[in-house]
Design a protein that fits this description.
The complex is a heterodimer. In chain A, 52% of the residues lie in helices and 13% in strands. By secondary structure, chain A is α/β, with parallel strands linked by helices. Chain B has a single domain, classed as Helix Hairpins, CATH 1.10.287. Chain B is elongated. The chains are: A alpha/beta, B mainly alpha.
């Protein structure tokens, strides 16, 4: 442990970023190493112009680090995950830990206001994940100036509140009448409570009018499509189940979804489960483990029949041109007729899958090195 | 028989049929993973048709809206529950039934 040095600072746009960086520089000097500023790119930024904002916040942190440290002090700034879809807080933490391991860092200094986009740190404690991995971590002792809601937070709270109020009104109004004073009054109270509590939970990003409206518009196309697919799935399923010889040929495959955030992975996984012959068994970030009942179901899956509508729903028309998982090399048979070797039991398959994930993380780490 | 009654009978019949298929699938399919297919797909559509029958029978806006909400919640929770069950099965190392394995057993 003694030859370890340097500290890692996860970078996110926050009012206390500069102070945290200054503190981290002091800590790094004590450990006898440099300061490593790392920004992980949220999955939904990939392939969009917003990557620029990630670079800017990293530059802001780097500039501060240089100001706060003596000349020649090693400062490095790295953007991780720009080529991959990072989904969920755990995967962000994996990237940080992978980086820290690789550079033999002594510890991690976390900005008290650090948050991965709108995903609330209250949902899952990043600190506990860092501590479990055996790194010393520290929350920078900076003055947060008390709690005050940011404009993004206020917007999210009001949108969540209005949605909750509308839902309440629909349920209550259809029974007691929409103008019933009790329904309206208790609805307002419910909306306020729901908005206040769920402001950081209900959304992954701060909603803005344009994208939300187009997502709703695409959703109106998506829902009938999904219902039709589900009906088709059931007719096929009824045929298979009621057939005297039960013509099934199950297999298990890994597919990496080309969708970024938790919400779109969830929609993808659920629509896989509801459509012809496929079932999501497990999900690690965007690595999904999928059980197919027969070969044609697997083919559809590999060609991206399920993925494309979900990508359309969340990212719009241009994402339809993305090739299917098989063509991208994001699909891998684990158990069944197409698997490279007959895997004896499912636990072996688990290790294969984890190795696959590690390789991709390593790849991202190499990308980071190029930036240094 | 009015049109409404006919529609209600049709939807209830379809609902019963798919729920029946789910039950048959539950019994006939070989392992926990393929049985989950039965529990998520046929079941979901069966419930969907039952709700549709209710909405048509009552025919009021309130019933239709609440039926739609019910449907949304079923469509969200059913795959999630199946996912939880199969995920637990998978992490406990329960084998995936394959035809290849089965044929080996038969030839033994």
């Amino acid at each position: 442990m003694s030859d370890r040095g340097g500290v890692l600072v996860p970078v996110a746009p926050s009012p206390t970023l500069e102070e945290t960086v200054s503190h981290a520089v002091d800590v790094a000097r004590e450990t006898g190493g440099g300061i490593h500023l790392v920004r992980t790119v949220p999955g939904h930024h990939v392939g969009r112009e917003t990557l620029e904002s990630d670079e800017q916040v990293l530059e802001r942190a780097e500039q501060r680090a240089r100001e706060a440290s003596p000349d020649g002090f090693p400062v490095s700034a790295t953007l991780l995950g720009a080529q991959r879809y990072i989904a969920g807080p755990t995967e962000h933490v994996e990237y940080f830990l992978g980086y820290a391991d690789k550079h033999d860092l002594a510890g991690i200094v976390v900005d008290p206001e650090y948050s991965i986009d709108a995903t609330a740190p209250t949902l899952q404690s990043l600190e506990s994940l860092f501590a479990d991995a055996g790194f010393t971590y520290e929350i920078a002792p900076v003055s947060t100036g008390g709690w005050r809601p940011t404009s993004g937070e206020l917007l999210r709270a009001s949108v969540a509140g209005v949605i909750a109020f509308g839902f309440y009104l629909v349920l209550g109004g259809t029974v007691y009448g929409f103008l019933d004073p009790f329904v309206l009054g208790s609805g307002v109270v419910t909306g306020l409570i729901a908005g206040g509590l769920l402001r950081n939970v209900a959304f992954e990003t701060t909603p803005s009018v344009g994208p939300v409206l187009s997502t709703i518009g695409r959703g109106i196309l998506f829902v009938p499509y999904l219902l039709w697919e589900i009906t088709k799935a059931n007719v096929q399923f009824a045929y298979v189940v009621l057939h005297p010889r039960l013509p099934i040929d199950p297999r298990l495959d890994r597919v990496d979804a080309a969708v970024g955030s938790g919400m779109s992975v969830t929609a993808f996984a659920n629509s896989i489960t509801l459509t012809p012959g496929t079932l999501t068994v497990d999900a690690h970030g965007h690595h999904l483990l999928i059980h197919s009942l027969n070969a044609s179901a697997q083919e559809d899956l590999f060609e991206g029949v399920h993925e494309r509508p979900v990508r359309y729903l969340f990212y719009g028309r241009e994402s339809l041109e993305l090739p299917g998982p098989a063509e991208r090399g994001d699909a891998e048979p684990l158990i069944g007729p197409d698997a490279p070797d007959v895997v004896e039991d499912a636990t072996n398959a688990t290790t294969t899958e984890t190795n696959g994930a590690d390789e991709s993380d390593g790849g991202a780490g190499t990308d980071g090195d190029d930036d240094e | 028989m009015t049109l409404v009654t006919a529609l209600v009978v049709l939807f209830v019949a379809l609902g019963v049929f798919f729920t029946f298929v789910a039950a048959v699938g539950m019994i006939r399919l070989p392992d926990v993973y393929s049985r989950s297919h039965a529990a998520t797909k046929a079941d979901t559509l069966g419930a969907g048709f039952a709700i549709l029958a209710v909405a048509v029978y009552f025919g009021t806006l309130g019933e239709v809206i609440r039926g739609a909400f019910l449907l949304v919640f079923i469509y969200y929770t059913n795959p999630t529950a199946a996912h939880a069950i199969t995920r637990a099965a998978y992490s406990r190392g329960i084998d995936v039934w394959t035809t290849e394995e089965n044929r080996q057993e038969e030839s033994r």
